[in-house]
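We read letters as residues; the integers encode the fold. Take this protein.
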Amino acid sequence: MILNIDVHMVGNLFVKSGITALFFILFSPAYALDLRTAVEHAIITNPEVLVESNQHLSRLEELDQAKSGYMPSIDLNAAAGYERTDNNTTRASGDDYRSLTRKEASLTLNQMLFDGFATQSEVDRQNARVEAQRRVLESASEKLGLKAVDTYIQVLLHRDLMALSSENLQAHARIYDQVELRSNSGVGRTSDLAQITGRRASASANMLSDEVNLKDAETNFLRVVGLLPKALEPIDAVNEILPQTQDAAIQLALENHPTLKSANADVTAAVAQYKASKSAHYPRLDLELGARYGDDLDGVEGRDDDLTAMPRMRYNLFAGGKDRARNRQNAHLVNEAKEIRNNTYRQVVESVRLSWSAYDVTQKQLVFQQEHVLASEKTRDAYARQFNLGKRSLLDLLDSENELYEAKREKAKTWYDHIFSQYRLIVAINKLKAHLDITLPETVEDGEKLHQAYSDVANKSTVSDEVAPLKSVLEQPVSLQ
């Protein structure tokens, strides 16, 4: 289901199927929120996207207003009331004035035949503005989707870091028990007990710090997605859908990036506005049809009716140079729009290059960090055996334990940075919603219905606070391919 954000696109079927799927997911016994559901909920219900959606709908109405210039205008005018007349007609009849009940009605039709291409240019301009805003909406949904991906990843990361801190604290607790037993038996040194006591306290503090960071990540998730992150499904790498080279990624971004397409549409709108301003140098020709009924008008008793059908030309010969100044103004606005587009082009290329660099570097870092974790595990295990035999000091063992802990944390951080860099590239080529199979609702009403359904289900959900088992990133296969 490839994304195509258009006002005539998705109807009640999407809303009903989306709500049904959401109920099934949330009330499933083994419910865990997946990335697709989180991103979809964020995009459909977040005010940032809804603002752009309403702006898009507003511009569609402006387009309809512009098209009305091709249509005739029909006006009905009717009036009746007291009239006192003193004119040549009344005086010629011997009256100074005459009082009558005036009655009149008229029906006129005005059809534009030629307006110097003003209406055509305005329709072209509004079409371009609709396209520009459609791309802004598309860009906003992609950016918000990426923000949702980021918050999703941050929750998973901090839960993994929390698990590592818990594991580290347990390791220090085991060593503490061992050293305390030796000290109580009289074979251990007092300094060793003090050393492990301090290290265990430090491990406890680290765990509390990770707990705070996790709560912050979950709060940020709630703000962006609109749901509390109870259990989350693991997130996997998506290398298979990414471009193979940086140049290929740049080319795809230049072809698909919604912000660049919006900038191109703005140029088209500016050119159309320039053409519309030149209409002032042409005459305007209208066809006017009219029918008028009158009774007791202007002191004359009886009916006074007429029918008219005539073309009418209006041509301004001099306006003080205003029209030419407006032409020059709009020409400058065209150049401004072009330079904004050129700057957007550079920003898109910069964004892709930065995203590709992060993707490439983190992929390479993971190879060495995995090697560091494996080597640190072997060192820690060897030091533990040697410590038990009295061939290693407690400080050596604690340092090896801490090095392993830090190595695992760094690999976890780099792993999730690598995943996020992949999604940055997906957003750069405008494929996030297509990748996650997300389609925006077609109307504001459908969006509000789906929003309410999400809210109702989320409020009624009885998901436990227990998080799903974490998928350790430490066993993830890493390759430079």
